[in-house]
Amino acid sequence: MNDAFRRQSGPFREGDRVQLTGPKGHLNTVTLEAGGEFHTHRGILQHDVVIGAPDASVVTSSNGVEYLAMRPLLTDFVMSMPRGAAIVYPKDAAQILAQADIFPGATVVEAGVGSGALSLWLLRAIGGTGVLHSFERRDEFADVAIGNVSAFLGARPANWTVTVGDLVESLPSAVEPGSVDRVVLDMLAPWECLDVTADALTPGGVLICYIATVTQLSRVAEALRRTGLFTEPQSSETMVRTWHVEGLAVRPDHRMIGHTGFLLTARRLAPGAIPPQLKRRPSKTDYSDADVEAWTPGALGERLPTDKSLRKTVREAHAAAKAAMSSDDDPEADVVADSVADSVADSVADSEEAPVAGAIPNPTDV
Ligand SMILES: C[S@@+](CC[C@H](N)C(=O)[O-])C[C@H]1O[C@@H](n2cnc3c(N)ncnc32)[C@H](O)[C@@H]1O
């Protein structure tokens, strides 16, 4: 058991981080020291009042102001810790743990380490018997991550290595081929790392990529298929909508985090294995006439207008044009309106030869 994993519950001790919530709901985080003081304009809170108290206790400052003292959860910590690079949000970290099937005792590779948010979730999931190898090409980010992980856990875990360098160059010398259970890629260009990832993963091992844009998602999916070394990739995104629940006012919150990233997972095939589905249906990395055909309105389930409904639309357009243009009692307007309606009818007649949904002319555009 790694000592670093001991500090997440029980009465407060020296060195623990504590979130103090005051009467107005403002939150301050302090690290407890024997004899330490937390100064506010509402008086002084002695750390010694907090040390030894149960988690989630109410403690009182010298002026009689009460604070709720709670140990930050991992979610609280990652959302407020110093950031070098953008972090993986808790909603996505939870999905990464589930979809990549991170288990106690697993050997996991992670790149890049960024601010260390995901490292903390991974370390927690693999427990003291697992190993996490993290790679980061920017040494200042690696330093931020090491600082954050050590601050939360109270020490730098013995089962965590941080290598400064590009994954493509560093991974082959850091792990034995086929020895890694899970690989987590959170970076701009995961497709550049697929070969080294495939070499490092054990057969059946899981690769998960966290990517921010659809263009990256498409690129990594196609690159992964081209290797022929993985199962068919699965893609998803996770949206969490919080709710306001108070009395009769029970509704979704007005604001939410709209987009963070996409997840793509695939499993490493055994050497030489070709899944039966792939034998039947070769992977398509380009689009053909058949693909384009699949986007026609009929194929998408949109109804094509029948000749009858098209004629009805023409009559309605005619009438609308006439009504609009006759409204100022200008006798010439009737003539113009008739000619507009004729143009509408001509356009529809043309389109009847090759009916296309959405080709019904708008009289105001004619
Ligand atoms: C979005 S951040 C990772 C955030 C991190 N997962 C977290 O939760 O805090 C992406 C990081 O990947 C690093 N990176 C990009 N490509 C890399 C590569 N090929 N090898 C190692 N690190 C890489 C970048 O320097 C950057 O710090």
Automatic annotation (TrEMBL):
Gene Ontology terms: biological process: tRNA methylation
Region span, Disordered: 1-24, 321-366
InterPro entries: SAM-dependent_MTases_sf (IPR029063), TRM61_C (IPR049470), tRNA_MeTrfase_Gcd14 (IPR014816)
Keyword Transferase: yes
Gene3D superfamilies with a match to the protein in the record: 3.10.330.20, Vaccinia Virus protein VP39
Keywords per UniProt: Methyltransferase, S-adenosyl-L-methionine, Transferase, tRNA processing
Superkingdom classification of source: Bacteria
Compositionally biased residues, Low complexity: 336-348
Keyword Ribosomal protein annotated: no
PROSITE patterns: SAM_TRM61
Pfam families: GCD14, TrmI-like_N
GO cellular component, one term: tRNA (m1A) methyltransferase complex
tRNA (adenine(58)-N(1))-methyltransferase catalytic subunit TRM61 C-terminal domain segment(s): 78-246
GO MF term list: tRNA (adenine(58)-N1)-methyltransferase activity
Protein name: tRNA (Adenine-58-N(1)-) methyltransferase
Originating species: Glaciihabitans tibetensis
